[in-house]
Specification:
The chain is of the alpha+beta class. It folds into two domains: 208 residues; 112 residues, 3-layer Sandwich (Rieske Iron-sulfur Protein), CATH 2.102.10.10. The protein contains ten helices and eleven strands.
């Protein structure tokens, strides 16, 4: 059923999810503290305090990397879709780990300074005119501020207060935070003592993230074909659409349509959920309704309306067919407009 604004409810699945994440985080930090000393340069040893800083810092980096990978991973393999329901929990945990990293930095590097610790943070290195000598701390502060803002506004209250469009734009800053973290780590590595273990983790995470995004982009492209006229777009073969699933058609300029196959019929809706612009096409049909994979908002496939008593609506689209070939009218209907579902003839084989 659709979701209304309400306090966070700790379902059993959420408790299990958070418990697994916290356990994995704990095991990673223990493993880092044990393994990293064996890989450091003998000529440039790293003391325990710095190891703790880097353990929490690299853990936060891995968490943010995985958060950004959940979306493309779910496009590559639907078994990752359940992670989308709890991605915001993941973000809050990542922010908490980043704060632990800042605590160790704050208490170790700045506690002996005669200046105020915050003043010392921004005045210890003022080489703003250099590239490799640029104060890497600035990038760390920028990333932390963004993570704190995203964690603070993660509740649905802020989604409603800011409106979905503004909230979505705000949370896209996670990519800026990720870039700032990479810059923070890269410059810090050039300016500080070497730690091969730390560098390997960062490089592997960044390359892996880029790889899954490129792979997801390649599989989410619209099917090739020519339009029957300026408004009708070739949407591929009907037989290749799995039952109770969707094919996502990219119309360009950020407009995507999800074509669902269900109960021997086909219906097309916008791919954007009215709640948070979640990808409806990555969800499935549950209880006769298209169910968003992010937060469970539901819509009837034939008219894009949420079931009573909920009032959300999304745009619908017309479909037509030529044997097994499916055509989509790129002109969206107003949200809540009923469009008669297109029957799937018995002669069309079931999709896998």
């Amino acid at each position: 059923m659709s979701v209304t604004l309400k306090p966070v409810i700790w379902y059993r699945s959420k408790l299990v999810y958070d418990g697994v994440v916290l356990l994995a985080m704990f095991l990673y930090i223990i493993a880092y503290l044990r393994l990293a000393p064996n890989l450091q340069l003998v000529s440039r040893p790293i003391d325990d305090a710095i190891l703790r800083m880097r353990a929490f810092g690299s853990c936060a980096f891995l968490l943010v990397s995985f958060i950004l990978a959940i979306g493309p991973l779910s496009r590559l393999d639907r078994r990752f879709l359940p992670l989308l329901y709890n991605r915001r929990h993941f973000g809050v945990i990542a922010c908490s780990v980043a704060c632990a990293h800042v605590y160790y930095v704050y208490s170790w590097y700045l506690n002996l300074s005669p200046l105020n610790p915050l003043l010392a943070l921004f005045s210890a290195n003022t080489s703003y005119g250099q590239v490799l000598g640029f104060p890497f701390e600035i990038f760390g502060v920028l990333a932390l501020v963004i993570l704190l803002a995203l964690a603070f506004t993660s509740h649905d209250f802020w989604l409603s207060f800011l409106t979905p469009r503004l909230w979505k734009s705000l949370h896209m800053l996670i990519y800026l935070a990720y870039g700032a973290i990479v810059a923070h780590i890269a410059l810090g590595s050039f300016q500080g003592s070497g730690d091969p273990f730390f560098v390997m983790i960062v490089c592997a995470s960044a390359l892996g993230l880029v790889g899954v995004h490129l792979a997801a982009r390649s599989v989410s492209r619209a099917p090739e074909g020519t339009a029957g006229d300026d408004n009708w777009v070739d949407a591929g073969l009907i037989s290749t659409i799995a039952d109770k699933r969707a094919r996502i058609i990219d119309l360009g300029e950020g407009e995507k349509v999800a074509i669902f196959r269900y109960d021997g019929k086909l219906s097309a809706l916008t791919n954007l959920c009215a709640h948070q612009n979640g990808p409806l096409g990555e969800g499935r049909i549950i209880d006769g309704c298209v169910t968003c994979p992010w937060h469970g908002f539901q819509y009837r496939p034939e008219d894009g309306c949420a079931p009573a008593p909920f009032t959300e609506k999304v745009a619908t689209y017309r479909l037509r067919r030529d044997l097994d070939r499916l055509w989509l009218d790129r002109r969206a209907n107003p949200p809540g407009t009923r469009v008669e579902p297109l029957p799937v003839n018995e002669g069309v084989a079931d999709g896998g």
